[in-house]
């Protein structure tokens, strides 16, 4: 037997609940004691005090803020940034609409709200945060230098007091933009020297600074390709200037050609991350980390696992998720997304599940884990829709424990958030959450086909909005069929990026129904494993999705009076909007395919000519 503390890592803890009510919390570090204290408080709230030991499953449990220096939040649906913008303002506006603020003071200064946020994140085990958007523009490019750095340091000290390391997203072209250099070539000696000087000063001001997050060569952002360099060259520049200070660089693998010619079916955005990074495996420095989106496209309602997560053998990896509901309902529609995330992290590889694989193949296991884009803002309830809080809480619990199910996490959140409500009311809320992700998928794009969303903001249907655009997100629906041929035999070859699954994904009959249209172009009369034809499945699921939302509305109405009026009305108003959105999706998608296929609904329900 060993001493409890010596058996735990830095963040693990043991709680001993003795007879008589005495509680002892042990850990090898103050951070572990903090996590243990919050875990005990959670147990008390759940009326489930018991002796147990916990060690977090993922080493890095990170939140990415997409907050802009002007106070807006890219893909944010809960009001303005809690970090930047004008005191008291919660109306998205450009920075230059704030004339009373000096150029050096783009900071909101709401220290109390930042402290509350840090406390919440620590209470659920988050240990890292990136403080600004990865599309680094305007004054945010200068956050790494004075006078902005001093204000950033004020924020980082708050997070540090709760055991959370702070990172900054940086502009790859900063040496040119703010450094008066003529190049940002990662192999140029002057560029390297400039970054060394910047980083040295950052650590003088913020000694426990975590490092940088970088988006490069993607969607118009500058990067190493401009200089004939690869992404290992780019990432290793930052890794080497951060290494003396024990910092890391997190390099996003979301790199693709955003000027695709829709006429060329051989080009496939799904291939991009693998094609850009697989050959670089083993070339990234030990303190460089690739942050890879869970799917190969962009946080859609249904995608396969990114093959990069299953193939890299000698590279530190972070699996990326999106809590903010960019494609998943904008925190208007109720969509508890934990079932999807847990499913993605459970994909099997030769090294075990993906969440188990990350540290096993890493050069440095402590630099692996999960990251997710936050969904908070200045709205009174932080997340726009009160029920969207469940995704933020759930993400953190999902990072911490690999054994918790989505239902167990939902139960925890509901029990803690609605502690004064009856058991029956809590069961209604849990039921809505647990059914919501499937309902949303039912009334949106079918069978993994991808983008059929409104181009202006990504809310609501737009069946053909992206079909002839430059973003590489096509469904190829015509009068005969729908779907993208990603086979090696006749398509883009993407299926070949999954060696262990290739034989299954290459053929429609062995591809899972929910991913059929992601991998294959099939006729509308093609019959799924469930027995339905593709076209009838589209009709059935879209009608079913609306019916489920109508049930949500009725069920929520039934609990009025047993939860706080503000919370009830907040969700009730959004459910009314969700119902309208679901009907719009149903009618547009069903009519779109009816007009193309000419095949009527077998049940004779309303379609529009």
TrEMBL record:
Cleaved signal peptide residues: none
Protein name listed in UniProt: Alpha-glucuronidase
GO cellular component: extracellular region
Domain Glycosyl hydrolase family 67 C-terminal per the UniProt entry, residue ranges: 383-605
Keyword terms: Hydrolase
Lineage, top ranks: Bacteria, Bacillati, Actinomycetota, Actinomycetes, Bifidobacteriales
GO biological process assignments: xylan catabolic process
Residue span, Glycosyl hydrolase family 67 catalytic domain: 51-382
Pfam families reported in the protein's UniProt record: Glyco_hydro_67C, Glyco_hydro_67M
UniProt GO MF annotations: alpha-glucuronidase activity; xylan alpha-1,2-glucuronosidase activity
The keyword Hydrolase is annotated on this UniProt entry: yes
Species name: Aeriscardovia aeriphila
Keyword Acetylation in record: no
